[in-house]
């Protein structure tokens, strides 16, 4: 290589290093922006909750003050009548006093109290209708989904509506093709998604074993290998439950979850802009585990595995909630 050629190569390498430095600088700036924006958003939300607490506390104090004033007025009236009762007087005055001091005539303003209680109850109902905010937000991303019978393992029965899958010990007479699982009890959704925010809820009531998650269509369908199990390779993300234990799987790595609750519904949230897959216990909206994929390289299918019936202990279907 001549001196001139070496100089060109060196210049090219210098330019490339400068480009990399410039790109790293921009990435660092973007990282700082994301952290700052996220911190600002958290601060704003916390302030709103603090404001709501202040408003509710103030309203509670006002309501209690009104009730206290009613109580004080009634007690003051009683005390005054009791004082009058102790004063010596003639027989006619005693009769008048007995009539005036009838305890049945001294009452709290129950109409006002009932009204306050009613208004408080209405406020509680309104607040409950608005929260939890996360649940309302996620449900706004609910997406229609139907299971694809042509992808289902031959020992899975898919409901006519395509909203549930259950195990049968009978190998069904179904067409075999490249898209059908033949070793693991999986079924995929007909639909796939590659944009926006998506949310589904899956009913796992009465089951002691199941798997569910999201996968690219490239997941292996054939052969007796773990590669076709959900979460065992890079193309799928999975939450697995077996006999009280939860594990989140991706890339063949299991993440045991310190959770003892047996949830009846599991939520699956996917954010394509954020590259995020999150599993939740819908019963009380408990976050279970989140995978940060960074960026999805293909569209995703919802994937379900109801598992074997385990001598009748796991015969219930796994079902998509509408």
Automatic annotation (TrEMBL):
Superkingdom of this protein's organism: Eukaryota
| An annotated GO cellular component | cytoplasm
What SUPFAM superfamilies does UniProt report for this protein, alphabetically? Concanavalin A-like lectins/glucanases
Swiss-Prot/TrEMBL keywords: Metal-binding, Zinc, Zinc-finger
Q: Which GO terms describe its molecular function?
A: zinc ion binding
Give the Pfam families listed for this entry. Answer: PRY, SPRY
**Domain B30.2/SPRY residue range list:** 125-322
Name under which the protein is recorded: B30.2/SPRY domain-containing protein
The organism of origin for this protein: Danionella cerebrum
